[in-house]
Amino acid sequence: QVDVAAMARLFGYVDVTDSGFIAAVFSIAFNPFFWNVVARWEHKTRALSRGFGSPHTACYCLGTVILLLNCVRSHCFTEAMKSQPKLEGLDSHGAYYSGLAIMAVGTLFVISSFLALGFTGTFLGDYFGILMEAKVTCFPFSILDNPMYWGSTAVYLGWSLMHASPAGLLLTAVVAISYTIAVLYEG
């Protein structure tokens, strides 16, 4: 069962009508929507590959756009956290170092996923017809499905704990929900 009182206390610290919070929610939800729509459009039409002259160039350009959108998302997330109050119970050395450890594990998953997949494997190369020779099964894929998504979620969770931010915790839940929907859509 969900502790409704705990949720009510959390929402008491978060102004969901704040423009920075709304911008963060929008950027979190927009990113996976954008890359899935563009990738499927490319797969059906090959319009980007034709427009850029090759599937590799098109994939690298889309990957760059995705990276820039992720920077915008992270900026919006951080600004939303900074503009809202801290949770006193989380404003401690223990919570800070726990957040740092969670963030480190998340970063490990994100970086090791990227190294295992390469740029085109990470940034939707299969939709451009750039296929890998075999399914990647090495670490971190050997212990977790979608390690880049869950690593990224862990980074945001750790960042939120380090800043004792209830707004960050709520935004992390939005990240997790967005990635869960993306996984369902992509699968």
Automatic annotation (TrEMBL):
GO BP annotations, alphabetical order: methylation; phosphatidylcholine biosynthetic process
Q: Which top EC class is named for this enzyme in its record?
A: transferase
Pathway membership, UniProt: Phospholipid metabolism; phosphatidylcholine biosynthesis; Lipid metabolism
Entry keywords, A to Z: Endoplasmic reticulum, Lipid biosynthesis, Lipid metabolism, Membrane, Methyltransferase, Mitochondrion, Phospholipid biosynthesis, Phospholipid metabolism, S-adenosyl-L-methionine, Transferase, Transmembrane, Transmembrane helix
Instruction: Name the InterPro entries for this protein.
Output: PEMT/MFAP, Phopholipid_MeTrfase
Q: How does it sit in the membrane?
A: Multi-pass membrane protein
EC number(s) on record?
2.1.1.17, 2.1.1.71
Q: Which reaction does it catalyse?
A: 1,2-di-(9Z,12Z-octadecadienoyl)-sn-glycero-3-phospho-N,N-dimethylethanolamine + S-adenosyl-L-methionine = 1,2-di-(9Z,12Z-octadecadienoyl)-sn-glycero-3-phosphocholine + S-adenosyl-L-homocysteine + H(+); 1,2-di-(9Z,12Z,15Z-octadecatrienoyl)-sn-glycero-3-phospho-N-methylethanolamine + S-adenosyl-L-methionine = 1,2-di-(9Z,12Z,15Z-octadecatrienoyl)-sn-glycero-3-phospho-N,N-dimethylethanolamine + S-adenosyl-L-homocysteine + H(+); 1,2-di-(9Z,12Z-octadecadienoyl)-sn-glycero-3-phosphoethanolamine + S-adenosyl-L-methionine = 1,2-di-(9Z,12Z-octadecadienoyl)-sn-glycero-3-phospho-N-methylethanolamine + S-adenosyl-L-homocysteine + H(+); 1,2-di-(9Z-octadecenoyl)-sn-glycero-3-phosphoethanolamine + S-adenosyl-L-methionine = 1,2-di-(9Z-octadecenoyl)-sn-glycero-3-phospho-N-methylethanolamine + S-adenosyl-L-homocysteine + H(+)
Task: Enumerate the Gene3D superfamilies for this protein.
Answer: 1.20.120.1630
Task: Identify the domain of life.
Answer: Eukaryota
Q: Which residues cross the membrane?
A: 20-38, 58-75, 95-117, 124-144, 164-185
Report the subcellular localization: Endoplasmic reticulum membrane
Protein name, UniProt field: Phosphatidylethanolamine N-methyltransferase
Protein's gene:
Pemt
